[in-house]
Amino acid sequence: MTKHEQILQHIRSLDVGSKISVRNIAKDLHVSEGTAYRAIKDAENQGLVSTIERVGTIRIEKKQKENIEKLTYAEVVNVVEGTVLGGRNGLYKTLNKFVIGAMKSEAMMRYVEAGNLLIVGNREKVHRMALEEGSAVLITGGFDTTEEAKQLADELELPIISTSYDTFTVATMINRAIYDQLIKKEIISVEDILIPLEETDHLTLHNTVEKYQTLNQQTGHSRYPVIDDHLRLHGIVTAKDVMGAGAFTEIEKVMTKQPITVTRQTSVASAAHMMVWEGIELLPVISSSRELLGVISRQDVLKALQMIQRQPHVGDTIEDLVTRHLEDVSEGRHARYQLEVTPQMTNHLGTISYGVITTIVTESASRVLRRYKKGDLVVENLTVFFMKPVQIDARMIVEPKVLEVGRKFGKVDVELYYEDQVVGKAMLMAQLIDR
Question: How is 282-321 classified by DSSP, letter by letter?
Answer without folding.
Answer: EEEEE-TT-BEEEEEEHHHHHHHHHH--PPPP-S--HHHH
